[in-house]
Amino acid sequence: MKTYLVTGGAGFIGSNFIHYMFDKYGNDIRIINVDVLTYAGNLENLKDIEKRDNYTFVKADICDKEAISRIFAENDIDYVVHFAAESHVDRSIKTPEVFVQTNVLGTAVMLNSAKAAWEKEDGTFKEGKKFLHVSTDEVYGSLPEGDGYFYETTPYAPHSPYSASKASSDMLVKAYMDTYKFPANITNCSNNYGPYQFPEKLIPLIINNALQGKKLPVYGDGKNVRDWLYVADHAKAIDMVITRGRLFETYNVGGHNEKQNIEIVNIIIETLQEMLDDSDPRKALVTKDLITYVEDRKGHDRRYAIAPDKIRSEIGWEPETMFKDGIKLTIKWYFEHEDWMKNVTSGDYQKYYNEMYTV
Ligand code: NAD
Ligand code: DAU
User: Fold this and answer.
1) Within 13 Å of residue 308, how many CA atoms lie on the same side as its CB?
2) Closest residue (by CA) to atom 4 of ligand 2?
3) What is the pLDDT of residues 267-312, one digit of tens each?
4) Secondary structure (3-state) at 277
5) Could you give the CA distance from residue 263 to residue 66 in angstroms, rounded to a whole number?
6) Would residue 293 show up in a list of annotated catalytic residues for this protein?
7) Catalytic residue status for 138
8) What does pTM read for this prediction?
9) Residue 306 CA: which ligand is closest?
10) CA–CA gap between residue 257 and residue 271 (Å, rounded)
11) CA 306, CA 340: separation in Å to the nearest integer?
């Protein structure tokens, strides 16, 4: 039975990954989830699995060397799946230091602790161990409109404090692989959407605002392009890279699903109108008049687009969820989890929203 140490498993992608893994492997795996529970971490995301015998939650900071080393000392960890990070670009523009702390120093602690636990006396590593570092396409910088893709060989050119901190963490992982032959893979994925995403990010923010008849803030001219992937497809890619990925390799993950932000907002409005019952009072609130162009994000990357050729040809991964289906699944999930949304948007979220948006 393999033991997975998942960091940041109470966040958006981490919790979807844990659900995916238990759905797929049931009692044949063990998962230890270490998360410090920042504003983005929410144990509600894992309510249905918290009582499983093969699941353990540890509340700890990945920057806390002692706490992380203890987890390795007390458990024979086979795989680390490292999600824990500060993940929101807008927050990184306001408070960059915490991104360096968690994303860079936290990754260093994770790498050192895994290395100490897995390294043998002769400097080689125990058989079958792997560190999967979950990273982003933003490390590659920005593409011109309609031209080119990010490949694994594309030089790093991060622009925001968030992407710079993720690029630094990737470089650390690469340095451990090159220097120590540390058993690792890096995945660089495009924008995810789906259940449990915190409503600071575009898609859940637009769904939540639209359902309340609140303004829908679109940065700049709304023509920045992102390459959207349904989160379960990302979880599947990570699982496949863990089991089939060649050590020391990087794999780009993306859905060839490029859309301008304004297209996304329009699709959400149209899908909400289609899915809401005529008798539902929210239906009248959801209109395109809510779209409001606001000041652009500082240093806003114009376009991201992943070439997922390597993961497809080497590992056989392909995205399964078409955007038109994934967005319906996502909206349905938010319809069915109104309390989840109320809980995460009460308290600190209002303060954040009022500081970020004037509309
Ligand atoms: P998220 O913000 O929803 O979740 C982050 C989780 O990490 C939270 O549970 C939080 O409590 C935890 N965390 C933060 N600091 C921590 C610390 N110091 N110690 C322990 N836990 C800590 O993020 P997400 O969107 O789920 O992203 C997860 C990972 O995937 C990140 O590394 C991100 O860079 C990467 N990624 C995200 C996307 C995307 O579209 N969201 C795309 C590609 C890659
Ligand atoms: O590409 C992968 C990255 O995708 C991940 O590494 C990040 O963790 C994740 O947050 C995401 O980054 P983005 O900045 O692309 O995602 P966000 O949802 O914040 O914004 C998507 C696009 O929508 C971006 O061009 C900015 C724009 N936007 C965003 C918000 C929150 C708006 O126009 N209005 C908004 O209110």
Assistant:
1) 25
2) 191
3) 999 999 999 999 999 999 999 999 999 999 999 999 999 999 999 9
4) coil
5) 47
6) no
7) yes
8) 0.98
9) 2
10) 17
11) 32
